[in-house]
Design goal:
Layout lengths: L9 E6 L4 E8 L2 E9 L1 H5 L6 H23 L8 E7 L3 H18 L3 E5 H12 L7 E6 L4 E8 L2 E7 L5 H11 L6 H9 L23 H16 L6 H27 L3 E5 L6 H13 L3 E3 L11 H13 L15 H5 L5 H6 L1
Parallel strand pairs: 1-4, 4-5, 6-9, 9-10
Antiparallel strand pairs: 1-2, 2-3, 6-7, 7-8
Helix pairs in contact: 2-3, 4-10, 5-6, 5-7, 5-8, 6-8, 8-9
This protein binds 5'-O-[(R)-(carboxyoxy)(hydroxy)phosphoryl]adenosine and zinc ion.
Amino acid sequence: MYELNKKQPIILGIESSCDETAAAVIRGRKILSDEIASSADIQALYGGVVPEIASRAHTDAIAQVVERAVKNAGITYGEIDAVAVTYGAGLLGALLVGVSFAKAFAYALKKPLIAVNHIRGHLAAAYLADERLKPPFITLLASGGHTAILHTKSETEFEILGATLDDAVGEAFDKVARVLGLPYPGGPHIERCASGGEKSVPMPRMLKGNGGYNFSYSGLKTAVINYCHNKEQKGEGIDKADVAASFQSAAIDVLVEKSVEAAKERGVNTVTAGGGVVANGYLRQTLSAACEKNGLKLVLPERRYCTDNAAMIAAEGLIQYGLGNFAEYSLTAKASIPLAATLETVQSRAAKKKE
Ligand code: KG4
Ligand code: ZN
């Protein structure tokens, strides 16, 4: 049987939900290795991710990426206690590459397979940033597909305090980048462009100060589009850096304000965050200043563990390992998973049998 009570299990994480083929090894909450091969450069030529190109790039890279992760971790294959893999949400063909590889790998090693939800991985990244981090805390989820404030009550229990009513914040960054003629993926380019600008363009602050912990980004996106079109029609140029800085502040200030407000209201003294947008320097600075001002402890994953990576998949795998929540070999990929289902912890047959 599996050594379920082993204190510091070694977990291999595999991620292939979008354009990053990633593998990482953790021992307990310590990262031993972390490898990524990205097809983003090729995708940038098309202005977004082309699913078939992503699937082919994963197929090409996955064996080498996993091999490198194991080698750089300084472990043998036999020392791996479990293989955790992203099964959804994401691009179906891309996910299937990781899932199929992980299944075969776990089967060959005779080690348990763990099915990880990509967004749960983003949330679990904070545990790698601070080995002593323990719920309860407030979590800001700011990714390409989701924007929400959660009350994390335990490693597997979450309450959604608020979420976006329309677009996700990352999606807004990507769309605004396109309007400004910046390359894919938009977030980092907007951040770079904004660093040379002033917050001088008026932007709507959607649901700021009202709407509870909910967010709305479609109005902000439209405001940027209208501003640029109006200027163009009048034959006036736009200062891209000023537009980027103004948009970035309008998009992020509300996230910071509501995260702090939620912690104060719930009487929780720790805040964490996860998802690609948490790599944004302006978000990191403003959230950290706001937490400090309000006497809250902030635990942020390092930038590289905010965007897609496999260490976060291994981190969520570690939680599921502790529960004995193992996947069957019939595991398949799922393209879309609603936020409520994402936050539910579905027990596998193996875990139920253990009880
Ligand atoms: O969390 P993620 O991998 O998406 C989902 O899993 O849904 O993050 C991708 C998103 C993209 O929208 C990207 O533009 C954004 O995160 N992003 C950023 C930055 N880096 C990535 N947004 C703002 N500033 C950044 N530095
Ligand atoms: Zn992601």
